[in-house]
């Protein structure tokens, strides 16, 4: 009898322990279930001020030659009222609405209806149907990787128009920049709100939804992990890559065209910004399959942060250097131009090689060479929501042995190069490096918090083996 009772107690203990383990992994892996006051305050701040920050930057270029200080001085001195600035701001126009609707529809068509053919003839390119990482609910999604194709088609049409068809002016984006901002905001808010409603009423995968109970947090950070319409329209892949990143290089080209129109030439700084950012964008699409394994797709839920961020923040603030150069055409001395180019290229090389090393290592399950040698790594394990145990590896050699986020370091070097191309007359173009430093440092912390929750003591062994985050010996 006593033995039977002991067995019953033991079974009960095991059941509770399994529940707790599941709850623990469910609770910690992925974004938070409980919202601390700091996160909530940051979210409320961003929801209220991020749209104003974007407006302020773009308005200051439009009305104050990209000076961030002059509008404040004007307001403080009483030379202008907020209403004066607002009244001078171009309104939403039918033309901009038409351009934007056409643009987004075109990208949807390229994404949904044209399966990738680039991987069939470009050696080394990974496109077509690819698998994402295992979600916390244990799902592996399939994605149609055709971003490179969408980028090529869009840009071929752009150049065909600029040099042959002349349907519209290549300065069209610059000329409608503020009216287009209102359109981008409408889409950004619409898609974030739709994603929120969808997660309550028709989620793509209910097990991969996270409700914190805090409306603002859920709206900002998203509830659904991988919202989709139909089998292939994936919100995260589409919004991050298509209207935002395909547009990035077109926006820069439009700025270059505007310089040509205004000054009769394109400065070397504008060419540098176009080339360096062009490499970054092309890299993104060349490695779109790899992108499926990055934090945005693997861990972030789809809310305002990604929805609005991809529609508004990214195209408007990541392109500030080109916009600035329209108002201040900087012609760099040869040695400065070469120095900036080198910084940008070395930064890009570090960024790409570090990402490539992790991708190769994970893809081959460690059966590869890193810098000519067998990789060194730490074995680790984690659990999904249903309690299934998975095994993984953390690379500790190559750039991953130098620092835990050396890919971010390379990214920051490249970002600094874009800003330096604009000279030192104004601070506006330096917003990007300030923002990227905050973003990527915050990412280090947030990712490490998540990885610690996911891998537990294995993550501690990893941080002991690779003690620095971004700069070996310093941070
Ligand atoms: P990472 O590509 O560094 O991915 C982090 C994940 O990789 C971790 O969550 C963990 O995931 C896994 N991982 C961590 N350490 C190791 C290791 N030693 N070995 C193997 N796997 C490891 O981060 P991001 O997704 O944030 O960034 C990808 C790139 O995109 C970066 O180069 C970044 O600079 C760039 N980026 C650019 C942005 C921009 O706005 N321009 C914004 C954000 C990123 P797991 O759970 O699989 O173990």
Automatic annotation (TrEMBL):
Region (Disordered): 1-23
Cellular location(s): Endoplasmic reticulum membrane
Enzyme Commission no: 1.3.1.21
Biased segments, Basic and acidic residues type: 1-15
Pathway: Steroid biosynthesis; cholesterol biosynthesis
Membrane topology: Multi-pass membrane protein
Keyword annotations from UniProtKB, A to Z: Cholesterol biosynthesis, Cholesterol metabolism, Endoplasmic reticulum, Lipid biosynthesis, Lipid metabolism, Membrane, NADP, Oxidoreductase, Steroid biosynthesis, Steroid metabolism, Sterol biosynthesis, Sterol metabolism, Transmembrane, Transmembrane helix
Primary role: Catalyzes the last step of the cholesterol synthesis pathway, which transforms cholesta-5,7-dien-3beta-ol (7-dehydrocholesterol,7-DHC) into cholesterol by reducing the C7-C8 double bond of its sterol core. Can also metabolize cholesta-5,7,24-trien-3beta-ol (7-dehydrodemosterol, 7-DHD) to desmosterol, which is then metabolized by the Delta(24)-sterol reductase (DHCR24) to cholesterol.
Homology family: Belongs to the ERG4/ERG24 family.
PANTHER family for the chain: 7-DEHYDROCHOLESTEROL REDUCTASE, DELTA(14)-STEROL REDUCTASE
The protein's name in its UniProt record: 7-dehydrocholesterol reductase
Organism: Chordeiles acutipennis
């Amino acid at each position: 009898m006593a033995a039977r009772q002991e067995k019953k107690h033991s079974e009960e203990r095991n059941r509770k322990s399994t529940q707790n383990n599941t709850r623990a992994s469910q609770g910690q892996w992925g974004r938070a279930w409980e919202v601390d006051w700091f996160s909530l305050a940051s979210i409320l701040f961003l929801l209220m001020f991020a749209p104003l920050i974007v407006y302020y930057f773009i308005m200051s270029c439009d009305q104050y030659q990209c000076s961030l200080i002059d509008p404040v001085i004007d307001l403080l001195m009483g030379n202008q009222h907020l209403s004066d600035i607002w009244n001078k701001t171009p309104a939403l126009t039918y033309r901009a609405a038409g351009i934007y609707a056409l643009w987004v529809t075109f990208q949807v068509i390229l994404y949904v209806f044209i399966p990738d053919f680039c991987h069939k003839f470009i050696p080394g390119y990974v496109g077509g149907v690819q698998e994402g990482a295992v979600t916390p609910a244990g799902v592996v999604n399939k994605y149609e990787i055709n971003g490179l194709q969408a980028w090529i088609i869009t840009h071929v049409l752009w150049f065909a128009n600029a040099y042959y068809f002349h349907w519209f002016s290549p300065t069209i984006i610059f000329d409608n920049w503020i009216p287009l901002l209102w359109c981008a905001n409408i889409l950004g808010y619409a898609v974030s709100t739709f994603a929120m409603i969808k997660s309550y009423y028709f989620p793509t995968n209910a097990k991969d939804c996270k409700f914190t109970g805090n409306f603002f947090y859920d709206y900002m950070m998203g509830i659904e992990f991988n919202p989709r319409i139909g089998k292939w329209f994936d919100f995260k892949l589409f919004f991050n890559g298509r209207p935002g990143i395909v547009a990035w290089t077109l926006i820069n080209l439009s700025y270059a065209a505007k310089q040509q129109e205004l000054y009769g030439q394109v400065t070397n700084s504008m060419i540098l910004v176009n080339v360096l950012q062009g490499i970054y964008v092309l890299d993104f699409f060349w490695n779109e399959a790899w992108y499926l394994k990055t934090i945005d797709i693997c861990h972030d839920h789809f809310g305002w942060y990604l929805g609005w961020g991809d529609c508004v923040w990214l195209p408007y603030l990541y392109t500030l250097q080109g916009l600035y150069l329209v108002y201040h055409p900087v012609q760099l001395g040869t040695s400065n131009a070469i120095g900036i180019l080198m910084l940008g290229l070395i930064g890009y090389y570090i960024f790409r090689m570090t990402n490539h090393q992790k991708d190769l290592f994970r893809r081959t399950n460690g059966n590869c060479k890193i810098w000519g040698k067998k990789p060194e790594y730490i074995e680790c394990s984690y659990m999904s929501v249903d309690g299934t145990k998975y095994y993984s590896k953390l690379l500790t050699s190559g750039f991953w042995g130098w620092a835990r986020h050396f890919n971010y370091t390379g990214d920051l070097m490249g970002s600094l190069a874009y800003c330096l191309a604009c000279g030192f007359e104004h601070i506006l173009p330096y917003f990007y490096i300030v923002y990227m430093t905050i973003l990527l440092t915050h990412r280090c912390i947030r990712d490490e918090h998540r990885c610690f929750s996911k891998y537990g003591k294995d993550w501690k062994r990893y941080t002991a083996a690779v003690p620095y985050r971004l700069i070996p010996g310093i941070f």
